[in-house]
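Long-time lurker, first post. I've been practising inverse folding by hand and with some scripts of my own, and I keep getting stuck on stretches where the structure tokens seem ambiguous. Below is the full token string for one chain I'm working on. Before anyone asks, I'm not after the true native sequence, just a reasonable design that respects the backbone. If someone could post their per-position residues I'd love to compare against what I wrote down in my notebook.
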């Protein structure tokens, strides 16, 4: 998909068709692909499923892991993209190895 930009120089008006950028104007980082978004959703569901299996609320897991509850909620909903450190930090209180947490995603 492309975007069009109007370029006005003097009395000459041109419309330029530019390729759509995948760079976020806010973060200045590449936007995630559809496959990455699906991966984040699956990972979030796995985190939530394990937390519920243990009978914990988000606040319980947040307290045990030291990760903010709002951040945890965003992770579980696939709206935040975890770092390796975050995944390791969550795996421990969930009583999972990091490999078990991400296996099959």
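-- Answer (accepted) --
I ran through it position by position. Result:
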């Amino acid at each position: 998909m492309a975007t069009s930009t109007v370029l006005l120089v003097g009395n000459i008006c041109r419309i330029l068709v530019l390729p759509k950028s995948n760079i976020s104007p806010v973060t200045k980082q590449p936007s995630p692909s559809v496959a990455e978004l699906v991966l984040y959703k699956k990972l979030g569901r796995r985190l939530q499923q394990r937390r519920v299996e243990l009978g914990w609320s988000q606040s319980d897991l947040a307290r045990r892991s030291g990760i903010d509850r709002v951040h945890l909620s965003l992770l579980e909903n696939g709206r935040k993209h975890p770092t390796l450190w975050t995944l390791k930090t969550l795996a421990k209180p969930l009583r999972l190895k990091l490999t078990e947490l991400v296996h099959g995603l």
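A couple of notes from the structure itself: The two ends are 29 Å apart (CA to CA). The CA atoms of residues 63 and 69 lie 8 Å apart. Happy to go over any region you disagree with.
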